[in-house]
Amino acid sequence: MKTLTWTLPTRIFHWLLTIGFAAAYILGDFEDQRSLHYAFGLLVGFLILFRLVFGFIGPRYSHFRDFPVGLSHQIDFAKNFFSNPKTWLGHNPGASVVMLLIFLVGLFCSLTGYILTTENYSLFSVSFNEDTVKEVHEILANSFLILVIAHLLGVIADTVFHGKSGTLASIFTGYKNGTEENVYLTGFQKAFAVVWFIVPFIFFYLAFDLPVKEEGNDDKDGIEQEHEDHDD
Ligand code: HEM
Ligand code: HEM
Question: 3-state class of 40 per DSSP?
Fold first, then answer.
């Protein structure tokens, strides 16, 4: 028996987030691709923002009440991982923690990135130190990468040790192996999903209007160095 666990919006979100994160992370290292980096970075931020709302208004399994993050669940999950694994139709306890951290870290990574494009490194009139924001942005981006690696290792472990649950296939088809009722979307949830996948692309487009700041003073340093050499 199969149970529809992930509705279409959750799967579309997942694959857009995957593409958005990969592109933003890789483009972060290319100074000549700043605008495209901003675009993918904002796409990630807004996709996550809407996913957070979906966590409160969405269907079973995608709803935050179905994220078993409590300590007793974690202990139970770890103790029985190999011997007597329970089938989790939604996220298992380990995955739930990683998912919530991805949402949190991804959102703040996008936000710190946006602050870097503002004139005074500010948000809602609160100014931040430029170097600190750069440092925090980089730390968040690398934490995001670590979480993605943990997520992929989790999916591999689940596939190897709990293959019967059909988790890997579920993020493509929506179905896991189970006997529960299929999830379904209400009209309101469907309408929300349409907005969810339009707004992030509007910000993707608007990102190209954000100012790209000149980075590094390598040339200036070089000129100063030359002057110093002549003075000697
Ligand atoms: C940048 C790369 C990726 C990111 C940021 C990411 C993030 C996420 C997130 C946030 C969820 C939760 C979805 C939700 O509740 O809305 C999820 C679920 C899932 N992802 Fe990924 N993912 C990535 C790549 C992949 C890849 C490459 C695969 C496998 C081919 C994969 C397989 C899965 C599976 C199987 C689930 C469902 C897990 C479960 O049943 O608990 N992910 N992913
Ligand atoms: C969650 C999505 C994002 C990821 C994963 C990400 C990742 C990165 C990475 C890996 C770097 C290179 C860090 C370094 O080695 O110096 C970087 C730099 C940068 N990012 Fe992002 N970024 C994201 C979102 C954004 C957004 C939305 C903006 C702006 C709208 C932005 C603006 C910048 C800027 C200005 C830099 C250069 C910082 C510097 O000069 O050190 N980022 N980002």
Answer: helix
Residue 166 tokens read as 């059909």
What is the count of structural domains for the chain? 1
Flag whether pLDDT at 183 surpasses 70.
yes
Tokens of 21: 């994160």
CATH number at residue 101: 1.20.950.20
For ligand 1, say whether the CB of 171 is within 6 Å of any of its atoms: yes
Assign residue 121 a region (left: φ > 0; alpha: ψ between -120 and 50; beta: otherwise): left
Which protein residues touch ligand 2 with a CB less than 6 Å away? 21, 24-25, 28-29, 37-38, 41-42, 44-45, 106, 109-110, 113-114, 116-117, 134, 137-138, 141, 144, 210, 215
Q: Whose CA is nearest to atom 33 of ligand 2?
A: 113
Q: State how far the Cα of 222 lies from the Cα of 230, in Å rounded to an integer.
A: 13
AA letter at 20: G
Percent residues over pLDDT 90 in the chain: 83
pTM, entire model: 0.92
What does the mean pLDDT of the chain come to?
Answer: 91
Q: Which domain holds residue 63?
A: 2-231
